[in-house]
Specification:
It contains two helices and four strands. By secondary structure, it is an alpha+beta fold.
Length: 113
Amino acid sequence: MKSFGACANWVAAGLGLIVIFGLTAAAGAQGRPDARALTCGQARTLIQQRGAAVLTTGRYTYDRFVASERYCAIGFIAKRAYVQTRDAQSCTIGYTCVIDTDDDDRWWRLRRR
């Protein structure tokens, strides 16, 4: 009987830790900002301050926007991004990273970022 009680204590302790870690992870998670709820200036400032951010752009769509090409991975380039905001139909908030299709560029590593 005593061994069952010790096992139950370990199970209870394990479940307690799982609950604590689950609550901590949920508290640390932040929602994705909705570009349609922000003004053009707010959206632009958000990208400039964070350097890169994922914004909701529609009911089922989202995209990652960056402040400059330095926030893009190797092999990607920055392309100007326009998004609908609360006060503008087409607001320039920064850039999106797209695959660099310029295959003739042998010196891409030396390009200024």
